[in-house]
Amino acid sequence: MYEAGYHSITNIDYSSVCISTRSSMYSSCPGMTWHQMDVRQLSFSDASFDVILEKATLDAMMVEEKSPWEVSPDTACFIHQALSEISRCLKPGGRFVSITFAQPFFRKRLYARSEYDWSIRHQSYGEGFEYFVFVMTKGEELSTQDAALEKSLLEGPSPAAASAVSLQQEDKEDFLSYIDP
Predict the structure, then answer these.
(1) Domains in the chain, ordered, with CATH?
(2) How many helices (H) does the chain have, and how many strands (E)?
């Protein structure tokens, strides 16, 4: 980004080792600053940034999740704190760009909250091994579809869905035992 002409770049990382190493590596880049801090407690003023870019920070927060279908309450809280801080630090009309391998079905569930005060767009890149770029624009409303997603997530499953009977019986056979060598 620096070589492309973007010189006012603020970098943060939780790791002081990373910050120290990168700060030394890019010391010849005036305008680029490095700060060790937790994304859940950013020390920047409200509406400080036109663009906030994250690549795999949220993925790292999700690494201990056992299933992408259901995020644990602790991780959901952790990510909510991070996204609240990111939203707070964006200027009106500012953009939060998130780059991830997480499919839109899973990631939009985290981003679609009206309290963040942003709209959500996404694009996929690559074939076979895609990655996704999400762009949230501060001050724009969620789309009708994203607002419905937020509502369904906040309301939780309906009583009928919670008591639904599975149509598939549990596998109790060891199919691998029947394979001839």
Answers:
(1) 1-37 (no CATH), 46-155 (3.40.50.150)
(2) 6, 6
